Structures are given as C-alpha cells and as structure tokens.
Amino acid sequence: MANEEDDPIIQEIDVFLARSLLEKLYLFQYPIRPASMTYDDVTHLSAKIKPKQQKVELEMAIDTLNPNYCRSKGEQIALNVDGTCTDETSTYSSKLMDKQTFCSSQAASNVSRYAAAVYKKGELHLTPLHGILQLRPSFTYLDKADAKHREREAANEGGDSSQDEAEDDVKQITVRFSRPETEQARQRRVQSYEFLQKRQAEEHWVHLHYYGLKDSRSEHERQYLFSQGHGLAENTELIKSPSEYLMMLMPPSVEEENDKPMAPSNVLSMAQLRTLPLADQIKILMKNVKVMPFANLMSLLGSGTDPTAVLRCVQQVALLVQGNWVVKSDVLYPKDTSSPHSGVPAEVLCRGRDFVMWKFTQDRWVVRKEVAAVTKLCPEDVKDFLEHMSVARINKGWEFMLPYDEDFVKKHPDIVQRQQMLWMGIQAKLEKVYNLLKEHLTPKKQEAQSAHPLLVSGEQRVSMAKAKVKQNYGQLEKDFQKQKAEMKSNDASARTGVANIRVKEEPLGVEEPMDTSAHSEGLNNGLANGLHPAPGPAEPPNGRLPAVAQELKAFVSSTFKKQFVLTLSELKRLFNLHLASLPPGHTLFSGISDKMLQDMVLDTGCKQILVPFPPQTAASPDELKVYALWEAGDTYDQHRQVLLEIFSKNYRVRRNVIQNQLSQECGEDLNKQEVDRVLKVSFCSLW
Fold first, then answer.
1. Which of 66, 123, 236, 433, CA to CA, is 20 to 30 A from 365?
2. Cα(24)–Cα(22) distance, rounded to whole angstroms?
3. What's the rounded Cα separation, in Å, for the pair 461 and 475?
4. What is the pLDDT confidence band of residue 491, given thresholds at 50, 70 and 90?
5. Phi, psi for 578 (deg, rounded to 5)
6. Mean pLDDT of 59-84
7. CA distances to 204, 645, 669 from 665, in Å
8. Which GO terms describe its biological process (predicted)?
9. Distance between CA atoms of 187 and 195, rounded to whole angstroms?
10. Segment 398-420 mean pLDDT
11. Which residue, among 14, 493, 459, 499, has the nearest Cα to 235 in the 3D structure?
12. Residues 170-195: what's their mean pLDDT?
C-alpha cells in the first residue's frame, strides 16, 4: 500500500487496436547515413520486393553537389563498374556514382510482440507489425566490376592463342547416365544451401511505387494507423480475463515445461487439442482417424460445441462418403510432397485417392486391381488408399469400413446435397484425367452378396418387422390426418366457390423431379450422398410468385443474359453449380423439377429452337433441347435471330451461307471477322 501511495496514477490512456493495416505494415531500419545523404534530401529512385521472402531492395539517390561528396572517387567507381562505354545496361549513366542500393534482411523471426503506436488526443492506437527489415548497403556493383575485369583478361588471353592450339585442346569425354535419385538423396538436395539459394533467386521481383513523406497518398495511408471504430467489438483482442492477463505477465517457466513427460512429436493429448481453434481440432482429428461419423466427431470435441460450426469446419477438410466423413486427399498429401513408396508427386496421389473415395460413393465394395488399372499407381500406394477407408474381405474385395449413416443423411439434407454437387465436379475431373469408361461409372451388382445371403433368425425377423410397423404407423397416421384436413378444406371451398373462376388446364402426367446429376447412371443408385428432391410448388392462382420461383427466375434471367443460347443439359449443370454455392437451408433446395425449369425459361422471354439433329446422333435428350434468349437488348439481337432461324432449319451450315444470309437480312456487308464475332457472341456456350 505504501508503494502504491508513493507511485500514484497520473493519467489513464485508452488503448485501441487498429486492424486496417494488419499483415501489411513493415518497419524499415535504415543505416546511419553519410553526410551526403541526409534525411531531408533522400530520393527513392525505385523499390521492389519479394513477398514470400519478405526481401526489399531500395535504390536511393546520392546528392553529388554536397560539399562532403568526393567527386573523383565517384567517377572512379563508375568507371570501374561500367567502363568507358555508356549504354542502357550501364549502372551509372551519368558516369558518376549518383545512387546507392540497399537490401533488406529480417531483423527478427517472431514479430508478434511488436507494434507501431500512434498517440493522438489522449488515445494510443496500436497496429501489429508484419515484419521488421534492416536495410544494408548492397555492393553488387563491385561484383559487376570484377566480372568485367575478368572478361577483359579472358579476351586478351584468347587473342594471343592461335587456332592450332585450340585444335590441340580437343579432349575425349565420357558420357554417364545418372542413377535414379533416392528419397534420402532428394531430401538432402532440397535442404542444401545451393537449392535454397536457387529457389530464392527464382522468385520474381515485384516493383513498387514510392510515395514521399509529404505526398497526399502517404497522408491517406497514415490514417489507417488509427482504429476505425472505438467499440468493444473492434478491440476484443485487448480484453482478457484476469487469469489470461496473469498468464501473459507471468508465463510458465521453462523448467516447469521440461518437467512434463515428453510425448512423441506426432502425438497430441486431448487436453492440448482442445486449446486449439475448432478448425485445427477438426483437421487434426480427421487427419489421424481418416474416416469418422459425425456423431463420433461431436463426442471427441467435447460438450458445448456448436454443431453448425463443426459442420462448417469439417467440410473444409473432409468429404462425405456414405454418410460418413473421410479426410480430403490434399490434407494427407500436401503440396510439394511425394509418395514414400514410388516417389510420385502429391498431385498424382490426390487424384488416385479421390478416385478410390468416389468409387466408395457408388458402391460398398472396391476391387484393388481395378483401382490400380485405372490410376496406374504402384500396388503399395493403392493399398495405402484402401487401408485409409476400407477393410479387406477374402474373395470379395475391399469393403467400406463404416456402415451407411442414414441418421446424418436424414438430419442434414442440405449438407448432403451440397456434398453430392462436389462429387459431381470431382467425377467430371476424374473422367477427363483417367478417360473413364461407362463400365467404370456404373456400379456393379453385388453378386457375391446375393449368392451368400445373410442368415437371420426367427426372433430377429419378428423384431425387425415390429420395428418397421411402428415406423410406418406414425407416417401413415400423419398422411391420414393431412388428407382429412385437405378434404375438409376442399368441401368448404366448393360450397363458397365463385361463379366465374377460370381453371388453368394442365396436361395430365406425373411431374418428375429434376435429375441434378451429370451422369445419372453413376450417381442415382441409393448410395450417393444426396436426397431425391421433392416436387416443386406450383404457381399460386393470385399471380404472385413464391420465393422459390422468384429465386429460380433470377437465376435463369442472369444465366441467359451471359450465355444467350444453352442446351437443357448445360443449363442444369450451371444450376447445380449455383446450388453448390448457396448457403445451407436456401429455398432452392426444396426441389426444382425439369418441367419447372423449362417453364421458367419460357417465361423469361426465351424460345426453344427446334434444331434438326441427325437421327443417329449420340447426344442425350437434354442435349437436344436448345433454348435461346430472343431479345437481349443489345446490338446483336437482329443477327442472333437470323442465326437462330438458320439453325432451326439445318443442323450444319457453311460459313459463307451464314455470311450471305446475314448480309441479306440485316442489310449490311459483313466480312469474315465480323461474322466470327457474331457467332462467338451469340453461341459462345455451344460453338
């Protein structure tokens, strides 16, 4: 208490954390400058940076008119560097050392403890530093002078030798072929100083524009050193609990940390794991376990964890296979790594493992020989892929190690549908890389299972039947109540009907849900990660479009304004990509049928073009349906309509016929380049 009375608080200063220049603010430490280069008259001629290495190079002008500058020494240095000739490659074009280059080096590896502070009007604003760089003079011009001196000496020696002496210097050489590089030799080469220097030299310089101290742009940037908002939400980093603040003031000593038992480098306790951010926890768990149901993942993360946040994080490091989460291939095989068995780069391993995961989305069983034949990888790599997510069965193949998680699929249909969209994109990439045939895309029937049926006892059959009856009873009761309520509402509406009601006639038939898969044969087999969407809602009689129809109309309008002509197949593919970019629970996830999509296309001003395709065409029915935006409001409307009329009569048309028809209908002579431009603008998505 006595010490506190002797040292009273004079002033309290509010501290704010400015985040506008976070990860952008560097501190440059200049050397002591000579008298000929004062702080006021320094001019930055150029500046460039290598962002990955955090290396900066500045070129500053020297005041040659300063009385402290030695002119004869500057002329001598320029003569040694550039010689007597002056051209564009000369370092000193004025034949005088009038500039100097400074190169940077990192002053500290960990700069998280440092910040730039600005005090203004009783407030202290802190901006964390991203790097501290020390600038030192660069003497590369001396190396250039030495190189020119050696070139002159070599030229003089070469002039004295005769042609006969050159012919006598012919020597026998031995051609040797290098051995295949082992993994250990490759690691030693990668860690060598020469390799690191080569990697650093390969990074390109990024040229910067320097603004002076009194420049308006510099004044504008300095304003970012002040916190933009003074609310508590902007400065949560400065709010700590008493225990956290005490831990920051008095961290545990090194001796106490050394007393703890040492664990292997790849082992992390659950207590240490829960101190990490949620995303890192999920990534570490998935990387170690590789395959996990969502319920098990939630139990490992502890109580109180938000399931929505877990779902958002797990989709970044894992993919859904049969209702279970399997870690992504790029997490197990990061970039710039290779296989320990064959030395194959990580990109090839990721494609092969993605093919195995995709096969398990189609079927419970995978044959190892088939995977090796498609991926062309060594047997050890293929075995590693299969051991990550399946179990070997004698005379059957490899079976996915976990049962189908039907509970997760029912509870999270939006997540399941989004994962199905991702698998469609992965399948398209695999088809291009591996040239997959139809037999690879179609799942095989389980002949082995049908030949060897499971033995079920009588008691088990009775219990299964009772459970099924209980499950169906609740659903039947709900359907009955719903039908009863609909009958009552129909009777009431019939008694109070209005006389002049126009009934919209629709063709009879059952409206099928839209097939949202690019290859229905490979995905719609009961094990794909998706749910069959329900039929979309019909248009209400009052004329107002529901939210689903409004969203669908906005998508169709924006799509046809970008690509004026589309087939139904391409439109469905773009719609699937649009669904994958939407957040969970969006109204479009309620289900859009083919008929709804085609009706909306016609309602937005588009027309169906009946192109006379040949009968022997191999195109699918959706690829034969062509829709076009008739009037887009641009300068090519008339040309586009003429082209559509041409292609509605003929499947193949010569360019000169198109050119003559456009000239006749539009009344202007178009050359070949203008015709190509019209075709490209009008049919960019098809031709």
1. 433
2. 5
3. 21
4. low
5. -65, -40
6. 83
7. 54, 11, 10
8. tRNA transcription by RNA polymerase III
9. 11
10. 91
11. 14
12. 76
For residue 56, the one-letter residue type is V
For 459-470, how does the pLDDT look when each residue is reduced to its tens digit (9 = 90+)?
666 677 667 766
* Strand 99-106 relative to strand 55-61, pairing: antiparallel
For residue 43, the model assigns a pLDDT of 64
518, 427 contact by CB (below 8 A): yes
Which residues, in sequence order, are bridge partners of residue 61?
99
**What pLDDT sits at residue 19?**
83
Structural tokens at position 122: 């009783």
Q: Where are the domains of the chain?
A: 12-62+98-151+194-240, 270-434, 545-683
The one-letter code for the residue type at 191 is Q
Q: How many CB atoms lie within 10 A of CB 417?
A: 21
What the block records as the tokens of 435 is 């040239």
Rounded mean pLDDT of 11-33? 84
Tens digit of each residue's pLDDT (9 = 90 or more) over 85-94: 767 677 787 7
Which residues fall within 8 angstroms of residue 415, CB to CB, at 6 or more apart? 311, 315, 320, 584
Quick one: CA dihedral 521, 524, 526, 529, positive or negative?
positive
Q: What is the structure's pLDDT at 482?
A: 74
What is the pTM (predicted TM-score) of this model? 0.34
CA distances from 681 to 570, 656, 673, 678 (A): 17, 18, 12, 5
Distances (CA, A) of 491 to 485, 497, 499, 538, 542: 10, 10, 16, 21, 21
Spell out the SS3 assignment of 432-450: HHHCCCHHHHCCCCCHHHH
Q: Which tokens go with 439?
A: 């037999």
Nearest-angstrom CA–CA distance, 501 and 259: 87
Distance between CA atoms of 592 and 417, rounded to whole angstroms? 13
CA atoms within 13 A on the CB side of 427: 24
- pLDDT band, residue 386 (cuts 50/70/90): very high
